[in-house]
Amino acid sequence: MAQESDLGAWYMAFGSKKIKENFNWHHEIQFRNYDFGSDLEQLLIRTGIGMNLSEGNNNLLLGYGYILSDNYVNDSTKNSSVEHRIFQQYITNQSFGRFALSHRYRIEQRFLENNNFRMRYRYFLSLRVALNKKSFEEKTFYLSAYNEIFINGDGALFDRDRMYGALGYMPKKNLRVELGYMSQVFEGWSRDQAQLAIFLNY
Questions:
Q1: How remote is the C-alpha of 186 from its chain's centroid?
Q2: Cα(181)–Cα(7) distance, integer angstroms
Q3: Which of 2, 131, 136, 141 has a 20 to 30 Å separation from 158 between CA atoms?
């Protein structure tokens, strides 16, 4: 809260490896900083096994997440906490020429410190638009935008909302890089972060 007016940075790497014809291994790591250097806000590691329902356009996934948060309690003091998270999600993708649309529905079981358990529900909607190609292929520049809303299973209904915009580049069919900006709105305050993301399918 003490750092809420500062622009932070969010570095992300996502991977998806095909392990059988209809199954994939998802893995990701995220570093969220209060600045652009070493002032850690959160380290998030997620992994899971997914199953494609139809040609990779619809995917069910069961996963686990480890989250280390290092939050300010005043201007100079931080408090560290660890969360373990189990989640289930369903992703559906549609492509229309130079447009790519994605919906993600996620349920989270959150195991926080002091035996604190919480449920949370998330809906993610994203749109990518190819700029220099008529479809997504090698050497494609594109615009990317998404919105994600978080709903708590108990207590206050609204948890947060994320709005994001970015410029992306696809050097290869299985690799994307995005540089963007995200505004995250909580109840009563907000926080902005620059983002750098890498997506690899192999």
A1: 17
A2: 10
A3: 2
Angle at 181 between CA 70 and CA 47, to 5 degrees: 55
pLDDT tens across 36-77, in order?
A: 888 999 999 999 999 999 776 899 999 999 999 998 888 788
Q: Residue 171: what residue type? A: P
Number of domains in the chain: 1
Residue 3 maps to a domain: no
CATH at residue 87: 2.40.160.40
Q: Determine, yes or no, domain membership for 148.
A: yes
Q: Which amino acid is at 69?
A: S
Q: Which domain holds residue 135?
A: 8-201
Across-strand partners of 192? 183
Q: Has this prediction a pTM greater than 0.85? A: yes
Over the stretch 81-96, which tens digit does the pLDDT of each residue have? 999 999 999 999 999 9
